[in-house]
């Protein structure tokens, strides 16, 4: 079971190396799909980049409005504002919400325009 981003990235790296070895071992006579492994490697690399963006909370929208990505630090700021509703805590939480919402809306707009968003 994969429980963190690093494990997922390691599994992807293993798959890429296996595919490179598999492609290199193919006889030249059946190599009609030469370069296919490079396309697959590129797609797997896109997944690795996407996982890194999730880990860094630099992507906010996942799927078709199925999830909003927050870093744990951002989540803590929201929790602090609920637990201790002081003006300073609420102000910080409001700024986090506004920042995340703006990024989410920009990604949503890009998705509606047809720009590629993984998954």
Automatic annotation (TrEMBL):
<protein>
    <submittedName>
        <fullName>Uncharacterized protein</fullName>
    </submittedName>
</protein>
């Amino acid at each position: 079971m994969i429980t963190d981003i690093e494990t997922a990235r390691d599994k992807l790296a293993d798959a890429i190396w296996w595919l490179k070895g598999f492609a290199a071992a193919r006889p030249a006579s059946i190599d009609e799909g030469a370069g296919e492994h490079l396309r697959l490697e590129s797609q797997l690399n896109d997944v690795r980049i996407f996982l890194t963006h999730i880990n860094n909370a630099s992507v906010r929208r996942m799927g078709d409005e199925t999830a909003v990505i927050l870093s744990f630090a951002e989540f803590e700021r929201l929790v602090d504002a609920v637990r201790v509703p002081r003006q300073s805590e609420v102000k910080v939480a409001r700024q986090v919400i506004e920042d995340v919402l703006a990024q989410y809306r920009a990604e949503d707009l890009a998705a509606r325009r047809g720009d590629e968003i993984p998954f």
